[in-house]
Design a protein that fits this description.
mainly alpha
Length: about 110
């Protein structure tokens, strides 16, 4: 008995991945093996960079808080230590937003912890 191959399913699988690699350059968009490898590698980059994005934003918030705290005469570490000691539970994202967009509110927080 001859071997049965489901051409419809395998072609559809290839078409699906080639459609996902449509914007790539050169053989990465139309050669099956190259496109498949590129697409899989892209998934690993996406997974890694979802974690790195969180890391980068936290670093940005810390830089903004540090800059605003230094204008008030405190370093970042002293400010965060005083904030913790005062029992004020406000996260870095909100603090950075206040430092950028509402300096008066940030100054009020700094005055409260001094």
């Amino acid at each position: 008995m001859p071997r049965s191959v489901n051409h419809v399913a395998s072609r559809n699988k290839r078409k699906k991945i080639l459609k996902l690699t449509r914007g790539y350059i050169g053989a990465r968009k139309n050669v099956w093996t190259v496109a498949k490898n590129t697409w899989e590698k892209g998934l690993t980059y996406a997974f890694r960079d979802r974690k790195n994005k969180k890391r980068n934003f936290r670093a940005l918030w810390i830089q903004r808080i540090n800059a605003a705290a230094r204008l008030e005469g405190l370093s970042y570490s002293r400010f965060m230590g005083a904030l913790h000691k005062a029992g004020i539970e406000i996260n870095r994202k909100v603090l950075a937003d206040l430092a950028m967009n509402n300096p008066a509110a940030f100054k009020a927080i700094v005055d409260k912890v001094k």
